[in-house]
Amino acid sequence: MVLLDEEKHLKMGVLGVYKVNSGNSSDDVVFLVDESNQFVLPIFIGPNEAMSIQLALEGIKTERPITHDLIVNLLDELHVELEKVTIDGIIKNTYIATLYLRDLKADRLIKVDARPSDSIAIALRTGTQIYANSSLKEQMIPKSSLKLPEKDQGEKDDDDIINSPYGV
């Protein structure tokens, strides 16, 4: 088990995936929420990753494995366990993340550079905890400032577009 420096990392959950108006288009964003449920870290992601995260949040299994399911299947077959995911920082307006994998046969830790969207999609499928480096507090916004659409029985529709609360 990999221990984290509690002062450097915040335990995060996934609030949801939403479309956000940003000028002339709408973009997909995943909102990570801190353990206190007060602050949200918005991360813009691609449409395929948004769909994958949403499927995992809703517990929907596809008939055939999509990419993130395939990765989880590979980890299982190779006897490798995802211990944690960390969102480490932001470089040139791009978030970076790390997958912490445990090779169960050799009992060794493997760290893999990854995109946050992929990391989140895999973490949701494996029930693995997500952490954010505390330096990312500057990127977080108060959850109370978000105007999220109401969800009816977990369904999304075309009206689930929100205006960006963080100026994009």
Structural summary, described in words:
- The protein is of the alpha+beta class and 168 residues long.
- The protein has one domain: Bifunctional nuclease domain (Roll), CATH 3.10.690.
- 20% of the residues lie in helices and 41% in strands.
- It has helices spanning 47-58, 67-77, 116-126; strands at residues 9-22, 25-34, 39-45, 80-91, 94-103, 108-114, 130-133, 141-142, 161-163.
- Strands 1, 2, 3, 4, 5, 6, 7, 8 and 9 form a nine-stranded mixed sheet that branches.
- Helix 1 runs parallel beside helix 3 (116-126) and helix 2 (67-77) crosses helix 3 (116-126).
- The longest helix is centred in the N-terminal third of the chain and has 12 residues, at 47-58.
- The radius of gyration is 16 Å and the shape is globular.
- The termini are far apart.
